[in-house]
């Protein structure tokens, strides 16, 4: 347990902040229960000048994690079909299939977003369009959540949210 504590302390150093955000956002986009927003917010609170790099790195890590979930869903579908000897479909899958890759815009949602990426793989929706829509949804989530948190919590980054021209 002490090794984990030392690793977390090391990764929290400012020079490793963006790599920590990348790893945490990647892992949080898989089916593991972990939130990456505190890591992004904490880094930006400590280093306001890293606002855009942190948002972009978190979006990238989260999108890559979603892509891994997509591949896990596709692999699970293939294994299930082999074991059952027939195709598996349901009403919910048919509904999601109707929306196609655009459904991956909802990958930012808590609880259902990460499994949604796996279901997209299960349905064999086209990989690159799914990743594209995942990236848009995840970027907008990080941008909105971090900006809102910065506006609510005073600190070193006070006024950073006001500097964003589109808010």
Automatic annotation (TrEMBL):
Domain VTT: 51-147
Name by which UniProt lists this protein: VTT domain-containing protein
Residue stretches spanning the membrane: 7-30, 50-71, 131-153
Keyword list, A-Z: Membrane, Transmembrane, Transmembrane helix
Any one Pfam family match given in the protein's UniProt record, by short name: VTT_dom
Cited InterPro entries: DedA_domain (IPR051311), VTT_dom (IPR032816)
